[in-house]
User: Fold this.
Amino acid sequence: MTKTLTRVSEKDGRPGDSGPILRMLFNNERIVADTSWSIASGTTELGREPDGTQHITLLGDPHLSRQHAILERRGKTLRIRDADSRNGTYVNGSRVTESVLNDGDIIRLSDTVLMIRFQSSDDRDAEVPGLLGNSPAIGELRHFVDLTAPTEATTVLIGETGTGKGVMARAIHRASSRSGGPFVSVNCAAIPETLAESALFGHRAGAFTGAARDAKGYFRAADGGTLFMDEIGDLPGSVQPKLLHAIEERAVVPVGSTVPVECDIRIVAATTVDLSAAVQAGTFRPDLYARIADMVTSLPPLRSRAEDVLPLLGQFLDDGSPPLHPNLAEALVLYSWPFNIRELKTVATELGVRGMGHRRLELKLIQHRLVDMSLSGSVDKPETAEEAESSGPRRTPPPSRGELVALLEAHNGVVSDLARSAGRSRKQVYRWLSQYDLDPMDYRSE
Assistant:
């Protein structure tokens, strides 16, 4: 008797065990965001009409072989093996006969793109409008909003440029008791130091040259609501003690006045820099950091939530846009997105313009954009349109197996540390590990 493995719908939440999950990301011109399967121990066949004892039927892709690939789970190790398919099995852009799979690996079977996630039973999530995505990382962010928003805790959001700190701040505001009040945003890096105090706290008419009338300032403009202080790490040092006083006293003194004005606000701050390091460097006051950091969270870069790339792209593309070519879909989820969601929006705009009149949105339309900026010196540009269509950016050869083993030993099997020291993305390091059939867990000390 055959056994079809359980499909896990996003509506049902994440599975309770910590085993691997196979997610479908793309299927024959269709972006997929709500289909995944738990992978049981033993052998599982994948294909258009698999007939193994355990199997997953991948519908919608006529180019799949009846039995295309085989997953083999033994304990914590998961492997994939090509089953002599017509069009091959690819892991992270490379054709494989057999390969060990790691968390976040991208699998392509004909015109179907899938992803492996090793999810934990303690993965958390919540319903938070505006924070889109199915990745564990975005689920943790929604949980953070659900936990934090009902409180008055001053919150610091840390993340690379373009990761959506402003979107996160608005989500906190909308989920709070202050949602009926104003949401006011200020970019601290854009305020001239000489005008910072006036911009934040307001001024009285005649307080300085050009002050023809009273001005509220950002604090009083946000009264009864939320003040989002973006790039707070770039706030001039001369203003930091006055900001600390305003937060502690819940009042501001406008420039040109001696009378405090009460302000009922909640502050959500954001920064691309490590504020604790800035404190150590003497560029950010330790007492101000201690006061604003009631709750701190990091926003994940887009490269760590590849399963969210295509659904987000679908949100950014105009209604009626042509469907994606499978080569483009695969390239997008493999790309490292150094400028994160902001860059994805730009790519969507260019696809919309260049793709007008096309039956499908093809890789060659934006091939020039999909170059990892940190690896720009080691990327070969395709020489022809046909080459561009059939392949993504090509990297320099990986280190030798011995060199990679030495790096694993030096970094205790921690892939993120290895990637940082090598100046490469985690996904690139996982490609190397897959090529040499190395498991980083084998190099973890007890």
About this structure: Residues 1-16, 373-396 have pLDDT under 50 and may be disordered.
